[in-house]
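To whoever is on call:

I kicked off a structure prediction for a single chain this morning and the downstream step that reads the tokens threw a length-mismatch warning. I double-checked the sequence; it's 182 residues and nothing unusual in it as far as I can see. Pasting both halves so you can look.
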Amino acid sequence: MKKKEKRKVKVLDYVLIVVSLLVLVLGIFLAVRFWPAEKVPVNVPEQTSAEDDPVYKAGEEYLAKVAQQPDVKSLGGGIYYKVISEGTGPKPTQENTVRVHYEGRLVDGTVFDSSYERKEEATFPVSGVITGWQIALKAMPVGSAWEIYIPQYYAYGAQGSGKNIPPYSALIFKVELLGIVK
């Protein structure tokens, strides 16, 4: 063979190798992408949604009753509040830190936390509390005392919090907004 013919054969060989590799990669991609996956049995608990949880149901029923009370107002998104006393001070922003007194309860009346019982005010950054508190605090003038009703999805949701707040718990807080620290 002449040199030109050998060079042509080598180029064709390389082209065939590259095309073959591309076809192989494409075949693997298509096989992985479209091949039916083997179904592996999974142990699924009987309860598969929040709606099946008795705590969730109790919270939803409680909030529905609260929403019907004439002195209860809505903050939107399922959060309700009752004014115990209305302050005249400024309203905190997301960037503020606030001083409060509060008591947190489950819908069955169980108190899970209380600054009143500790006889000590609490100081929190607005951005550092559950979403339901954040929404309520930003609507409260300093000096106000409200009872706030928070659905589970604006509280601790499916994970709950520690041993005192079960998953899917709607929460009730009495909150006195004493001041804005910064």
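Update from on-call: the warning came from a stale cache, not from the record. Cleared it. Sanity check on the structure: The two ends are 89 Å apart (CA to CA).
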